[in-house]
Write a structure and sequence with these properties.
single chain; alpha+beta; Transposase Inhibitor Protein From Tn5, Chain A, domain 1; 2 domains; six-stranded mixed β-sheet; two-stranded antiparallel sheet; 8 helices
């Protein structure tokens, strides 16, 4: 899934018997072309975990002016390059008895890469021990600022994925055929787009402005209502004890004027 903030851009079900990043490159290409068709001067930054770290994908980004900040799985060579900073972080932790985080810039290339690239390395030591992290990027700026302010914001995207999976059943893939499961994912994605629009347009400024989709479903959609329809209008008859009637009316008015 590709998200831009809270808005879903692409939803694709990957077969389980292929590489985790397969087809991501093609999806990124199509998405980039579409975004630049609509906004020619837009700045695009790809954020992803280490499952998307493939040098051909990074090279495509570099050739097409797409910035990236992608997790990099740790290995013995990266750990050896970061070892002095990790040792320093451990000493400072023992001295201060608190979590210590130190950042470094590394020039690194895996054996299969075409060129070396900038890697931001985080040397962290806590009560639980060392916790090194590595991110490859072509962005300019300080290592800690890029890691904390740009890369770690990827966690919000993870929340949106969990929101769709848990609240709108995007993880239901029990059909025997792949296309049927892909269609279920698309239905879930359409539902997410609709509920996100309700939250963004109809619930702005209300107590549910930042509510999860499961909460919105429970309080505004998953309710017992009698629907009467004729040639002129549609009437919704709520139970007199329904506690969110005013909020429902407010959302309807906001959506009708949007």
């Amino acid at each position: 899934m590709f998200f831009c903030g809270a808005q879903l851009l692409v939803s694709y079900l990957r077969p389980s018997n292929i590489d985790a990043a397969k087809h991501s490159w093609a999806i990124l290409k199509l998405l980039t072309q579409r975004l630049r068709q609509a906004w020619p001067g837009v700045k695009i930054i790809l954020r992803g975990d280490s499952g998307f770290c493939r040098w051909k994908m990074l090279r495509w980004c570099e050739r097409h002016e797409v910035k990236y900040l992608v997790g990099l799985a740790q290995n013995a060579r990266l750990k050896a390059m970061l070892a002095p900073r990790m040792a320093q972080a451990e000493v400072e932790h023992q001295s201060r008895q608190e979590k210590v985080r130190l950042f470094s810039d590394l020039d690194y290339a895996a054996g299969t890469w075409d060129v070396s690239r900038r890697v931001i390395a985080k040397a962290e030591h806590t009560e639980q021990g060392s916790n090194p992290r590595f991110v490859v990027t072509n962005l300019e700026g300080g290592a800690q600022a890029l890691y904390d302010e740009v890369y770690c914001a990827r966690g919000e995207m993870e929340n949106r994925i969990k929101e769709q999976q848990l609240g709108l059943f995007a993880d239901r893939t029990s059909c025997h055929r792949w296309w049927a499961n892909q269609f279920r994912l698309l239905l879930s994605s359409c539902a997410y787009v609709l509920v996100e629009a309700i939250r963004r347009l109809g619930l702005h400024g209300t107590e549910l402005a930042r509510a999860q989709v499961a909460t919105i479903r429970l309080k505004l959609l998953k309710i017992g209502t009698v629907i009467l329809r004729n040639t002129r209008r549609i009437r919704l008859l709520f139970a007199s004890a329904y506690p969110h009637q005013n909020l429902f009316r407010h959302v309807c008015q906001r959506l009708s004027s949007a």
